[in-house]
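Appendix B, record 7
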Amino acid sequence: MNAQPPSSPSSPGGSAKRPHKPHRRPKKDPVRFLAFEAMRAVDERDAYANLALPPLLKKARAKGDFDDRDAALATELVYGTLRRQGTYDAVIAACIDRPLREVDPPVLDVLALGAHQLLGTRIPTHAAVSASVELARVVLGEGRAKFVNAVLRKIAAQDLEAWVAQVAPPYDDDAEAHLAVVHSHPRWIVAALWDALGGGRAGLEDLLEADNERPEVTLVARPGRSTPKELLEALGEDSGLPGRWSPYAVRLAEGGEPGAITAVQEGRAGVQDEGSQLVALALAEAPLEGPDTHWLDICAGPGGKAALLAALAAERGAALLASEKLPHRARLVERSLAGNPGPYQVIAADGTRPPWLPGIFDRVLVDVPCSGLGALRRRPESRWRRRAEDLEGFAPLQRALLREAFTAVRIGGVVAYATCSPHLAETRVVVDDVLKGHGGQRTIEAEWIDARPLMQSVPGLGDGPDVQLWPHLHGTDAMYVALLRRTA
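Structure tokens (predicted):
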């Protein structure tokens, strides 16, 4: 007969009492704690991840226990979670018994980070759940950690495909709502991009998916100061690739480090999306009538296009005036242009009330403030901050800046209207309204210049004369540019 364990003498009725489990201090995982810190900065301070994350990574590396693999995982957790936040919110909502708005934001951040590990990475299920619960114990406390544990175990019961099939409305019932959940974009952005593309479902889904992919890092070799060959040699054949469209572009393979390149350190080269380079090149190459000695960049911050324009202008003996309203952004422009061999000047000035004389510039770039819907790959959190009504706030400023650009340019000179957005209300509609004098303004005498021949190597540029670039077609941000020559 098997021996029975003796009953505890102190237990009432002779029943055994479980020994008290000693309290275990939660163990801080530096990678996940850093990712949580970055998420809180995005939520609480409206920070952008690309600005909040680097100083956190630098601080962690300085402690000596944070290597490249840790940094890569932390980066993936932050950006992956932000990109797929809409989908993960729908999944989390299906696993709790209250509206998401009633869950504390720090708890939602831990749940979203855990959901991404479970549904968007190859991290084993047990490790993803246990690491997320441990993070919750550190940053939320024992009580809410139990809630996190229960929710994540429900999420772990299915893969992403199964969850999407469960939480997304059927496409035939509500196409926009279906795509919003499947591809993690607000519904109004789905509708706006669909209108801008003017095509069918396949092209739209390609675009939405491209917005959720990690963008390449692209360098620009500033003419007369550096060359793509120099950058490629500095990177090595395993880390550097030629640009697709811009003659000055070099693409970094995964793991390439721009800051380690001497030309970048010295300001002779910089980080700049290839779409941004194409906009500057289109203005520089646009045909004009008369002299070509004075160029203007009205909204120059943070300085990427201005630096490329200044280098191109210097090769022709032209001078660039770079204007930026905000003084701290004007200082960024100064830093970008420092060392340029040709004449240039940087000023802090409001482009809608400019200090320069009218009609004196040969080429004018006005890269207007906008919704930023063209750069959702780089700033995924912006899709959750923007609202459709935000465009109404940008509209008067965009029109005012474009009108001042036409005032600044001489007859026969060229204006480039650019914006990092494909939304029709920020692109062709703005240009048409300004030319026609809508809102009681004067009409503008100008003729369109077909921008497509100035980008001969780039396919799929549409009917023109303006150009809309796309992440899914060109691998660039969704930059828009219209070129116009003032005629009277």
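Remarks on this record: The chain has a mean pLDDT of 92. The radius of gyration is 27 Å.
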